Amino acid sequence: MIPQEIIRRKRDGDELAAADIRSFIAALAAGRLSEGQIGAFAMAVWFKGMSRAETVALTLAMADSGDRLQWADIDRPIADKHSTGGVGDNVSLMLAPVAAACGLAVPMISGRGLGHTGGTLDKLESIPGYMITPDANLFHKVVKEAGCAIIGQTGTLAPADGRLYAVRDVTATVDSIPLITASILSKKLAAGLETLVLDVKVGNGAFMADRGQAEILAQSLVEVANGAGVKTSALITDMNQPLADSAGNAVEMRNCLDFLAGRKKDTRLETVVLAFAAEMLVKSGIAASSDEAETMARRALASGKAAEVFARMVSMLGGPADLIENPDRYLARAPVEKPVPATRSGWLAACDARGIGVSVIDLGGGRRHPADRIDHRVGFSELLPLGTRVNAGEPIALVHAADEAAAERAATALATHYRITEDRPELTPVIAGLI
Asked: Which pLDDT score is estimated for 115?
């Protein structure tokens, strides 16, 4: 197998044979390809696309590039959820313990931030001691005893995807449907799932800004996953504004703890968490209907059982046992916190969610290069949702920054990301469709 020939053929629009795709991915996993070759392959796929057969071959090759997990000794349905990425999207952090509290086993393999979107692993790393790459035995033990474990890819789980994932982040090839499909599903197939629910984001803060493209991606994911033997569905959700009222790492972790404590009711975030919990429970056969499933999820939150599951997961993976009770003891705060005033009176009618994500990166809360270190303290909190009436000078968010200069830049940038109008806006529903 000559890598540059495979790259050339895909660059020229040829359909690659499954054997060639397997050979290329095997070389990638073995470290025999340069970053230039990986980036060139990703860019060729971005421009020329892949057929369904090529996408299936790529997904299976990446899933088979390492170990496949087995859960024969766990008597719960093995289920998971995955998001295509957004701003202020920390659904996984709350959903996994909610689903586990309702009777599912959730081995959640998550990723770092891609492009302007935040990463679940980056958020978890704001917790001192939390191990995002435990060995296979510990991962299995946590899933079995706590009910869920949110971790990153180990070196033995879909290792080809780990390297390709990092290169995509810095080569503007994130928003390729075949690459997104293979990246998401290779990890899920390797995780030994029985059911999967996908969160496909659409809007100016998503990789798919167009509803039609989002539906194409959702269909691709659902068809490939079901074809590989995992019962899968997808919800299309709105990403024209941050989902949570925070965007960053430690600030989103605080948001998670507040949610589990019942302090984020009647929000878009709650709507999404409950919708995905319901879909997971119905898909796995735990509940007979969405209404029954949502009632179970609400009960798990209200009783504190979901919070207990989360606390046990964190403790078993090396984090503090009393994180929920004492978040200020463990989650670092940025030295500077600065309110962002509304530029005029009126209604928050629209925002540039992608711009907000980029502003988090500018603060140091994301990466420009794979080796960049993240400042987990920085970001935005207390973001007001669209449809809120504000007065000129009233805070619409709070900036968390490393110094005064960075705080001032971020506050100025954030103000430009919002449009304030005299008329009350008509808002987009947060759940846009089911596939």
From this structure: 65
